[in-house]
Amino acid sequence: MRQFDLTPLYRSAIGFDRLASMIDDASRNEQAQNSYPPYNIELISEHAYRITMAVAGFDKSEVSINTEHGMLTVSGSKKADETERQYLHQGIAARGFERKFQLADHVRVTDASMENGLLHVELIQEIPEAMKPRAITIN
C-alpha cells in the first residue's frame, strides 16, 4: 500500500485535518470492495450528480439507501427463495451487496428510483450562503 506524505499540505491548508483519513479510507475501500454491483457516477449539472447501479433481480423492497455522517450506503439482500431449482448454468448473482460512497460536504440525496434493473440515486450539492464566495470591501 502506498503512503502519502501530506505534511506540505498542512502547512498551507486550514481545516483539512480529515483529508488524510479520507485518502486512507478510499484506498482501503478500493482494495476491499469487489466490482459487484457495477455502477456509474454521472455529473448532471454543476451541482447535481446521479449514481446508477445495476441491481438486476432485486426488488425495491430488497434494496436500502442510507446516509450517515457523509457516507452514502446502498445495500441489497435477497429474500430467501424456498423454491428448489436445478440450474444448468447460474450466471445471475443472487448474493447481497453493500456499496459505500463518501459524500463531499453539503451533498445530499434528493431522490431514488428503480427501473429496468437500474437503481438511480440523485444527489445535489447545496453550498450554504455563508460558504459562497463574496467580495470584501476595504475601508
Automatic annotation (TrEMBL):
PROSITE patterns: SHSP. Residues 30-139 form the SHSP domain. It comes from the Bacteria. InterPro entries: A-crystallin/Hsp20_dom, ACD_IbpA/B, HSP20-like_chaperone. Keywords: Stress response. Belongs to the small heat shock protein (HSP20) family. This is Molecular chaperone IbpA. It comes from Amphritea japonica ATCC BAA-1530.
